[in-house]
Write a structure and sequence with these properties.
19% strand, disordered N terminus, elongated, Rossmann fold, eight-stranded mixed sheet, VC0802-like, alpha/beta
Amino acid sequence: PSPSAGLPRRPGMAEAEAEAEAGTAPAEEGAELAAVIGATVPTGFELTAAEEVQEKLGSASRISRDRGKIYFEVPARSLPQVHRLRSVDNLFVVVQEFKDYQFKENKEDALKDLEDLVKKLPWIDPLKVWELNNSLKKKKTKRRKHNLQSPASKEKLPDDGEEEGSDQKDTGTQEDGAENATGVEPAGGQDAGGTHGAVAANGEEEQEDNEQSDAKDELQAGSGGEPKAGEAQTSEGEAKVLKFRVTCNRAGDKHSFTSNEAARDFGGAVQEHFQWKADMTDFDVEVLLNIHNNEVVVGIALTEESLHRRNITHFGPTTLRSTLAYGMLRLCDPQPTDIIVDPMCGTGAIPIEGATEWPSCYHIAGDNNPQAVKRAANNICSLLKKNESKESSTPQGIPLDIIQWDICNLPLRTGSVDIIVSDMPFGKRIGSKKKNWDLYPACLTEMGRICTPGTGRAVLLTQDKKCFAKALSRLGHIWRKGQTVWVNVGGLHAAVYLLKRTWERAEEKRSFW
């Protein structure tokens, strides 16, 4: 059989077939299609993501030297489960990886080598994986269209244009690995090849959890003769020419070229090789060129919009990414029947992630800001409606309550809480660094009071590390610092602290009447 059996014919496939016969072709027909998946994850939580992949997919992961990325191999039929991972932001299928790529010192020669690389790459299997991924999304879109009576879709719009703040954070965080290294360039002009920076979202799909049996059937059917998403048939019955863009993320100070130049020249070679049409905004295929010092990875994007946006429909100025919330919750190893509290919940990203992934625990969320409490309540409602539309049987509620309260005077019994997980005010968009000097010690004292002595734990995120360290040093009798994970939040270097509650008894709340 032809090495590209099942793929719609496109101009430029002849070279790919020639390359297939040269030994880079997929295995014989009938052999299972495997994919090396690359995933961007919140920096600092690479090990957490690797643990989740091992636990849920049975695959070992390799953590990239480029922070914020992991790689693992799965059979293509596992794509629905890959999209259900809670700790990954964006997914791509790896075309090829070069661990020690030797760049020429001369700019023209280095760029010419990148152009020549396109013809040598084994594109066929990754393109099949991309096709299967697209058919999975197509099924999902159809299901959504049939489900018009569901009110959940109406909830998807953020209120009062509040998403803006979170979007600004987004663009800074989606490619964390690149940000942490030296020599990263700002997003540049829209040349024919593409631009550096976070993957653009078309906003049409959300790659969330719960791809069901029909999506799996679609994948197991393989790439059959029917036209695939992004390749609508023309009136003559031929597959339409695909539109593509190249996104280059470059980190390192030893390169003679910019990310835009690499994207432009590599993109020109891709266009020539496949006869695809370049389109920066309305593209079918996004080719990724990740360059980190001497490590080069070429991939094809499998997500249009980051998976971290799965739970939140009503955004606040500092909405935490769901993937980071998941990583924080995993750090404290929740056990069934644990009571988990987020005393400064904002839009509710942490408790909503917790209730979704750890439904045998009881989650309590609170905030002193009525607007935040309202947004969190709306996000919980959206999640309930989404669950209703998914399940034909009676939908389950979620073990989560939201309350407006004062963080320094919580209406909870002393020693009654097992776990506290919270994103503390950084003193940038909310509050101020000056206020944090009073707020942090007061928060840690009150958290120590409600937390169970000896077994209780807290996982707290903050960018105001100096203030946090000072507050913690004053409260060493109540909290012991365990692990620290350094993370990147919207371009800010922050830390996640795992604290263990000592056996020291906290002061009881005195009655005021």
